[in-house]
Amino acid sequence: MKAFTPNPKFRALPFWIPMSGGIAWAAMVFLIIRRWSSASGWGDAHRYALIFGAMMVPIVGGFAGSGSWPRTDLMGKTVFDVIAIFLLIALGRVFQNRSSTDSLQKPLN
Questions:
Q1: Per-residue b/e over 23-44, b at no fewer than 16 CB within 10 Å?
Q2: How many angstroms separate the CA atoms of 5 and 98, rounded?
Q3: Are 78 and 59 in contact (CB under 8 A)?
Q4: Range of the domain at 89
Q5: Coil, helix or strand for 29?
Q6: 0.85 exceeded by the pTM?
């Protein structure tokens, strides 16, 4: 089995090479995020940034092969992506309001 390569002039890679790379990448990201999230200062803002960044990858990267898509598919993806961005912004405001009200309720030392 061969893996896809974007340039047909290049010979296809054996399947295990990109799969091993993907598994190594996922393991590395898991370990880094586990370490960051166990830190004492990790909070809602960090979780939100992680979610927002992870969601932006398919939103932006999804247009990479869109040159051959039917116009209706492209319009549908654009509409759903804009809705997703607005919902992510709304979620960020919820986190921001929640953290500001929490800080008001904490006693000052």
A1: eeeeeeeeeeeeeeeeeeeeee
A2: 46
A3: no
A4: 43-105
A5: helix
A6: no
